[in-house]
Amino acid sequence: MGTACPANPCLRAPRRIPNTRFIVPHEVHNIPELRHDRLYNAREVTALLGVHISTLYSWMRDGNFPKPQKIGPRTVRWKGSDIIGHLTRVAAQSAGISVDELPF
Fold first, then answer.
1. Which Pfam families match (predicted)?
2. Prediction pTM value
């Protein structure tokens, strides 16, 4: 009476549920290569920076991220050179280097 029958699903040991805390959105696995001569859409930019789209637009509204180029009636793209310049400026500021000392 003390042994459970493995054929009965109610008496089986509960299945382990994987830890889902570390699962990331599928966009992160498809991070594009950052090139200065390419245009990037919002999904690509957010994947590159690891932020949510609302954070990206909040940064733009506050003047902390470059605005995109309008390339169609409902289409915008960010220039890779603008993204690289922004990341370089942020890295320089966090390292204590004046933005005026940068070569661009």
1. Phage_AlpA
2. 0.64
Residue 56 lies in a domain: yes
Please tell me the distance from the alpha carbon of residue 44 to that of residue 27, in angstroms, as a whole number.
Answer: 8
Strand order in the sheet with 39-40: 39-40, 75-79, 69-72
CA-only gyration radius of the chain, Å: 23
Q: What is the mean pLDDT of residues 25-43?
A: 73
Q: Which residues contact 68 (CB under 8 A, 6 or more apart)?
A: 42, 60, 76, 77, 78
Quickly count: other Cβ atoms within 10 Å of residue 40's Cβ: 20
| Total structural domains within the chain | 1
Residue identified by tokens 């805390």 is 21
- For the segment 48-62, what is each residue's pLDDT rounded down to a tens digit? 898 999 999 999 999
